[in-house]
Amino acid sequence: MEDHPRKPTRTGTETHTAVWTGRATNRTQWVLAAAGAACLALGIQLAVSSTWTSGIAPLLMSVIGCVAAGLLMLFGTLAFVNVAVRVDGDALEVRCGHMGLPRRRILLTHVVGAEFAPQVTPRQWGGWGYRWRPELGTGVIVRRGEGLVLRLGDGRTFTVTVDDAEAGVRFIRDRLHLPSTGAPAGA
Is 103 helix (H, G, I), strand (E, B) or coil? Predict the structure, then answer.
């Protein structure tokens, strides 16, 4: 895990800009993923070994319901077990889960401010995941804790929970040439 900006390096005539990366993980999501796998297994078990005599419609509804609920829980939670944030000279990129989906890329030219939020909770956002709240904007919330809040030029905000968010905010402000106020965001 890289939480500290790398120094610019020079190889020949090519210059590499510094990059800041951060991650956050929620191990509680694994419990929900296990529950989804159990629902999926129950649906398969019903389909394979059912001896129901009450008809095919109730059996199909049970099997389809269990499989659908299991898949939604399994993939819905695995997508938000962790988040990886990468900030380079051009953009902030957020990738969720092990497959990196959903993904969000915000060009730094669209950012007018960056703030540190010392305490972001899923309760504020209505749960874990990719969220939108009218009063808070858009957010990727994978756990309770610190986060970084970007104010965009169109008036919207984007929040992401990530470890060492304060260093990420400093890194972004350095790229935007913003003053370091040190005041935490109210998110």
Answer: strand
